[in-house]
Every structure is written in C-alpha cells, then in structure tokens.
Amino acid sequence: MTLTVLCMAVLIVQLDTTVVNLAVDPIGSAFHADVATMQWVVDIYNLVYAVLLLTGGLLADVYGRRRVFMGGAIVFSAASLLCALSPAVWLLIAGRALAGLGAALLMPASLAILRVTWPDVHERGRALGIWAGCNGLALAIGPSAGGFLIAQFGWSAIFWAVMPLGLAALALSPIAVPESADPEGRRMDGRGQVLGAIALGALSLAAIEAHGTIWLAALALIVAGVASGLFLGAERALGDHALVPLGMFRSLTFLGAMIATTGMTFGMYGVMFLLPQTWQATGRLGPIGAGVALLPEAVFFVLVSPFSGWISDRLGRRMATAGGVGIIGCGLALIAMFAGARSLVVTEIGLALTGFGMGLATGPLMGAAVGAVESARSGTAAALINVARIAGATIGVAILGTVFAIGGKGVSGLRAAMLTGAAVQIASAAVAWRTTRRRGTDT
User: Can you tell me the distance from the alpha carbon of 421 to that of 419, in angstroms, rounded to the nearest whole number?
Assistant: First the structure.
C-alpha cells in the first residue's frame, strides 16, 4: 500500500509534464494566446519544480516526510483544479506554477519515504524498480491518454484526469505511509535556499531557451555557474548545518550516482529532443508518427524497471548501474551509425536499448544515492539526485543541440550529436563502475 501511494505521486508529477505539450494548440486557441505565452504554460511547471527541489527535500527531513508528501498532494490537486477551471491564460500559468510547487514537495518526499520505509537494501531495490518504472509508464501512456482526453472532452480534461490520483494519494497517506523526520541540527539556511534556487532556476531557463533565444540561454548558463559557485562557498562555511552538507559528497557511492545520473539524462533527453526534430525537419515523419516512433524507449523503460532490483541483487548494483548506462551508450551509437538509413528498424532497436538501459539503471542509481547517506539526510539526497537528473537533461539538450547545429543539422548533425552522447554515456558508465560496490550495499 505504501508503494502504491508513492507510485501515484510519481505518476501525477510525470503525467503533468508529458500531457500538457499535447494541449498547446487547443489552449492557445481557447485563450487567443501567442506562442511566447503558451511556452510559459508548458515551461513554468518545470522551472518552479527545479527551483524548489532542494527546499522540498529539506522540508521533508525537518518537518516530516509524510506531512510534506501530503502537503504536496494537496497543492498539486488544488493546482490541477485551478488549471481546469481557469478562465484566463494568466490563471492557467499560475496554476501550472503551483503544480510545480506541489511536484517539488512530492518527489523528494516520496523517494525519502521509500528510503526510510525499506531499510533493507535488497527490498528497497525492488521497490525502487517499481517506483522508477512509473516514470516510463507516464511517458508511455501520457501522450496517448492525453490525446484521447483532449479529443473527446477538451483541453481541461487533462487536468481533471490527474486529480483523482492526487486525492487518492492524499486520502491513503495517513493509513499507508509512516511518518518520519530528522530535524536535529537542521535549519532552513536562507542564503543557501536563495542561491540554490537561482542556480537551478537559471539552469532550467537555459533548457527552456536552448531551442529559442540562444543569447538568453547562454546568459542563464553563466548565471547558473556563478550562483552555483557562490552556493558551494556558502554551504562549505555552514558545514553540517548547510542546506546541502558538502560532506555528503565524500561518499564515492553518492558522488558516483550523481555523476552517472547526470550523464544518463544527458544522453536520454538529448535523443528525445533531437530525434523527432530531425524526423520532422527532413519530412520523414509528422508529429504523430514521431511520437509513435519514440514509443520503444518508453515501453522498454516500463518493462525493465520493475526487475532492476532483482537484477541488481543477482548481478550486483555495479552491473545494474554501469551496465544500464553503458547500454544507453550502445543505443545512441546505433542510432548514430544508422541515422541516414532508409529503414527506421535499427533506429527503433537503438531506442529500445536506451529504454532498456534507463530502466535497468534508474532505480539502482536512485537507491545508491539515498542509501549512501544516513536516513536523516534522505530528503536532501532525494532532492539532489533529482537535481542531477534535471542538470543532465538541461546540459544534454544544450550541448547536443549545439553539436547538432555545428554538424550541419539533419542527418550529419544527428550523427555527430548521438556519437557525442554515446561517449558521455560510456564515460558515465565507467564512473558508475569505479564508484559502486560490487554488491548492493549502502556504503
């Protein structure tokens, strides 16, 4: 029952990311909104989510993980209601921002609860595999379910649809989820909160503008770098009382999980961004066809994730993490080699490999991160591993998009970008291999 409730949170957070993209045209028509306004309808959710992730993790540790989880469910459900009933586009944008706040409370709290509820590393690995698989499930069902709802009931239906899951998670939490907190020696660290929010917000803004206003994306990356440096200096001065105690990174397992997760999403989001763009730009596939062609990635993610804990137990966490990230690299290399082929069969196999690798590695990497620190810091660790995921996606889209452009766009640009992504995956797999113990231990 606990795992079911936690999986509901993952589903609503990820579904809200995937389905809104499909509603851009009908929402724009309904409110007579321009392209720039509609971009903020889509992007404000991810921006607020990224900015408040570290805060959500700290609140969970200090004030109670179940309490913050339930607060996130309340905020998310209220935000969905506001979006569904919005009479004006600015209210819809406000509702999407509120949903980002709910996601920033739900996700770190859910992963921290999982860490505390399953103290045994092997049982936790199995639970994490199912929890992580919900990400892939949202990617698989989001576009098709969202498209059906919009066609049958209008754009507001996508917001009504996630409300039952949020309310069910809220109602079941007092029964199914144990409360836990570790407030001793923790404080809000206002300076760290502000600097961390600026760094994460600027990084997310760079991702938003990477395929739009390039100069703004570059400026945002510079701001993110400066704010990150100031943030690290402030946290170092506070030691164990910091928002992010830097001593956590002395654990090779934790550090390796962060690096490998960043590398993993670097390639994954790069291919999800560039491949459909290339297909559509060359006239090979339309928007619907491109969405269908990407399905093998999501399907294999869903199929493999529930078994990642079992595989980690049998072969060792090192094989699951390093092997999974390495398999993604092989998939990207395959896509690169057959980028100009007439048939998409080999490309689909490459996408299936990337989904397989993601399903194999995601749960064990999350488990390695939250298991490498004491349970008192589980909320912070959960927030940080999600920060690594967002950072990898942002940097991947930016760098691989640049390689794509330098390579001449089209097939040649795609080939260059996918080979670059594959190289990063292999390097990340090597880091995971070097920093992860052979068996699934927490140290």
Answer: 5
Backbone angles phi, psi at 291, to 5 degrees: -65, -40
- CB under 8 Å to 218, separation ≥6 — which residues? 206
Each residue's pLDDT tens digit, 20-67 = 766 777 888 888 887 667 767 877 887 788 788 888 888 888 888 899
Positive or negative, the CA dihedral 400, 403, 407, 408 is positive
- 252-274 pLDDT tens trace: 888 888 899 988 888 887 787 77
Contact at 8 Å (CB) between 253 and 435?
yes
- Estimate to the nearest angstrom the gap between the alpha carbon of 318 and the chain centroid: 22
Do 328 and 358 form a contact (C-beta atoms < 8 A)? yes
DSSP sequence for 142-199 = HHHHHHHHHHHH-TTHHHHHHHHHHHHHHHHHHHH-------TT----HHHHHHHHHH
Q: Which amino acid is at 98?
A: L
Contact 347, 363 (CB under 8 A): no
Nearest to 264 by CA among 353, 152, 358: 358
Q: How far apart are CA 310 and CA 28, in angstroms?
A: 46
**33 burial level (CB within 10 Å; 0-12, 13-18, 19+):** buried
| Token pair belonging to 116 | 């505390």
- DSSP 8-state secondary structure symbol assigned to residue 377: G
**Cα(61)–Cα(388) distance, integer angstroms:** 19
- Let me know: does 40 contact 159? Beta carbons within 8 Å: no
Query: For the stretch 64-87, what's the b/e string if a residue is b when 16 or more beta carbons lie within 10 angstroms of its beta carbon?
Result: bbbbbbbbbbbbbbbbbbbbbebe
- Helix, strand, coil percentages (3-state) for the chain, rounded to 5, are 85, 0, 15
Do residues 323 and 360 make contact, with C-beta atoms less than 8 angstroms apart? yes
List, in order, residues 6 or more apart from 223 with CB less than 8 Å away: 198, 202
316 three-class SS: coil
CA separation for the pair 385, 364 (Å, rounded): 12
The span from the CA of 315 to the CA of 124, in Å, is 16
Q: Residue length, the chain?
A: 443
Which among 279, 263, 440 is positioned nearest to 368, based on CA atoms? 440
> What does the alpha-carbon distance between residue 432 and residue 278 come to, in Å, rounded to a whole number?
31
The single residue listed with the structure tokens 């990400």 is 135
Task: Rank 167-176, 270-279, 369-378 by mean pLDDT and report only the highest.
Answer: 167-176
Helix (H, G, I), strand (E, B) or coil at 409: coil
Structure tokens at 364: 């064990």
Contact 393, 225 (CB under 8 A): no
